[in-house]
């Protein structure tokens, strides 16, 4: 048995699970990484109740106290980064470089960022208003403040593709604002989130302020959403699951922050730098093996550069080393599970049947002999009505659709149920910005897939509800209260 075995973290105590343990599987080796606890419904409710009991004192704590704990947690995470990297890579299948730089390091950075965020002003002055005498009282000048207050108990349900960064991006700003949290990690790779809880415990987080529960099935997550002690649910995952969570939240008016699916359109105009476009789009093949909702998976290429772009993307995909994520030089690791590998492969086969041309990939890699690997795959000559174009595949698969003019490209980009992140590549920056303003997406990258980590993040349409990242996350995890007084 692995050393990585965890108990539930409830009310400041490490608690034996009510339903035993389940195995966490390494996607690269198919071996057991460790064991995660199966919480009973009663234990999830107890965790929410512990968060409710802790809320009063934590919400009234000094911002400096909250900032100090978050900063210490960041330092502890960084201190143990090597161990955390090994665990994150083993349970998520990320390459060592990705686990170190984009998971653990980003997790620590987010705790550090919201240590500062805890000290940001929560009051905003409202211009005074002159009121004449009337039924509401005597004439006077009335001042006002808009003050952000913590929401209460926040359930944080995190995604499997980045157990450190995603969890930290929810937990840190929620705590900074004075909320208490109940964290329900993805069942595939929850052990890293327990490591995060241990860092917060060592940093001095009071009992009940942070609670972590897990389960291999939907039961623990359902209880974490429908508990009467929960005031808000922050969820990252599929649109279908998000819709079910929203239905439950709607019955008791729980606040929601939803970061859901994506099918990012990458418009490549005929005046674009193709090498730059290929480098950006090509990250879909490699970054988390395409398991990222912000990836530019739906390439819309103007006909003048269409064949050249397809050829360059195919060459890029074929150069990528697929294999053991712990080996030096590996770019593409496994997807998270055998079931997900089968799902991605079924989409590739569906694309063939729909008439797409498989230009690269399309077959399961022969080596390594075990693990849940999918070859980087490029599907060309696609049409916008194909399911491989319209549905989120969440794997290292890129589809390419040709278009004639700018108007058609914009229309194709917007003809989607999703609207998380889109991209525009053009040598004319003014043209690119003009097009960006017409795209129905929460964010648009102009000649880049890079991110500004203070910019608001979230989606239009079925890609989500609300915005987080930077100071926007502090607003997301707060309610606004108006205070009015006579001058």
UniProtKB/TrEMBL annotation:
One of its GO terms (molecular function) is oxidoreductase activity, acting on the aldehyde or oxo group of donors, NAD or NADP as acceptor. Residues 14-483 form the Aldehyde dehydrogenase domain. Keywords: Oxidoreductase. It comes from Streptomyces finlayi. This is Aldehyde dehydrogenase family protein. It comes from the Bacteria. PANTHER family: ALDEHYDE DEHYDROGENASE-RELATED (PTHR11699). Transmembrane segments: none annotated.
């Amino acid at each position: 048995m692995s050393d990585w075995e965890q108990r539930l973290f409830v009310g400041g105590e490490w608690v034996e699970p009510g339903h035993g343990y389940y195995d966490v599987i390494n996607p690269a080796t198919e071996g057991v990484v460790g064991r995660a606890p199966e919480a009973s419904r009663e234990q999830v409710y107890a965790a929410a109740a512990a968060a409710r009991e802790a809320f009063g004192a934590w919400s009234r704590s000094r911002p400096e106290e909250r900032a100090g704990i978050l900063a210490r947690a960041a330092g502890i995470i960084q201190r143990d980064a090597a161990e955390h990297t090994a665990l994150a890579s083993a349970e998520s299948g990320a390459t060592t470089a990705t686990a170190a730089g984009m998971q653990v390091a980003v997790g620590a950075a987010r705790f550090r960022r919201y240590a500062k965020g805890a000290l940001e002003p929560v009051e905003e002055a409202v211009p005074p208003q002159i009121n004449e005498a009337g039924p509401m009282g005597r004439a006077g000048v009335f001042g006002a403040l808009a003050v952000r207050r913590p929401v209460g108990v926040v359930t944080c349900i995190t995604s499997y593709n980045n157990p450190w960064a995603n969890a930290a991006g929810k937990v840190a700003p929620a705590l900074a604002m004075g909320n208490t949290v109940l964290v329900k990690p993805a069942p595939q790779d929850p052990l890293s989130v327990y490591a995060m809880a241990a860092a917060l415990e060592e940093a001095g987080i009071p009992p009940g302020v942070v609670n972590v529960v897990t389960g291999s099935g939907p039961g623990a997550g359902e209880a974490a959403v429908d508990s009467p002690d929960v005031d808000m649910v922050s969820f990252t995952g599929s649109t279908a699951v998000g819709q079910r969570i929203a239905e439950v939240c709607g019955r008791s008016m729980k606040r929601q922050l939803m970061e859901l699916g994506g099918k990012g359109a990458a418009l490549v105009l005929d005046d674009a730098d193709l090498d730059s476009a290929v480098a950006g789009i090509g990250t879909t093949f490699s970054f988390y093996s395409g398991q990222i909702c912000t990836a530019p998976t739906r390439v819309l290429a103007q006909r003048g550069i269409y064949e050249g772009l397809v050829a360059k993307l195919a060459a890029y995909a074929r150069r990528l080393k697929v294999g053991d994520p712990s080996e030096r030089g590996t770019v593409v690791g496994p997807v998270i599970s055998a079931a997900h590998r089968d799902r991605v492969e079924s989409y590739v086969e569906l694309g063939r049947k729909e008439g797409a041309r498989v230009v690269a990939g399309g077959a399961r890699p022969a080596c390594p002999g075990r693990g849940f690997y999918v070859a980087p795959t490029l599907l060309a000559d696609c049409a916008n009505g194909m399911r491989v174009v319209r549905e989120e595949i969440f794997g290292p698969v890129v589809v390419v659709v040709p278009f004639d003019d700018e108007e058609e490209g914009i229309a194709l980009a917007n003809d989607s149920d999703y609207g998380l992140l889109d991209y525009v590549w053009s040598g004319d920056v003014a043209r690119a910005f003009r097009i960006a303003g017409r795209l129905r997406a929460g964010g648009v990258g102009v000649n880049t897939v890079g991110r500004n980590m203070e910019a608001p993040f979230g989606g239009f349409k079925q890609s989500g509800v609300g915005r987080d990242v930077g100071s926007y996350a502090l607003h997301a995890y707060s309610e606004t209260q108006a205070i009015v007084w006579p001058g």
